[in-house]
Amino acid sequence: MTDSSIYDKEEASSILHVAMREPASWLTEVPNIMRCIYENMECIGMASARHSLDLLLLLMTDQCPREVVTSLLKLSPSCDRY
What sequence ranges are listed for the domain Maestro-like HEAT-repeats (predicted)? Predict the structure, then answer.
């Protein structure tokens, strides 16, 4: 979702929609997904892409709250941990 071409943005959006329809297929990948979102959030400027990420985060938090929180704690800068 960081690529500037329209095709790539549409493709990334469709992948997100598929992932949200079939959460059982990727729920074991929550830490990897959280890391990817964290590392790319600043590059995602399209409102529709940010909205899709919001929906994905809500779904992951609903399905796997422990994994989401653990991932966020591991990703947080060390100065925010104390």
Answer: 1-81
Q: What are phi and psi of 72, to 5 degrees?
A: -60, -40
Q: Yes or no: say if 63 and 23 are a contact pair by the CB < 8 Å rule.
A: yes
Question: Which one, of 55, 2, 64, lies nearest residue 32 by Cα?
Answer: 64
pLDDT tens track for 22-78: 777 777 788 888 888 888 888 878 888 788 888 888 988 998 899 999 999 998 877
Q: How many CB atoms lie within 10 A of CB 10?
A: 11
Interatomic CA distance for residues 49 and 72, integer angstroms: 20
Q: Sort residue 3 into left (φ over 0), alpha (ψ -120 to 50) or beta.
A: beta
SS3 content of the chain, % helix, strand, coil (to 5): 80, 0, 20
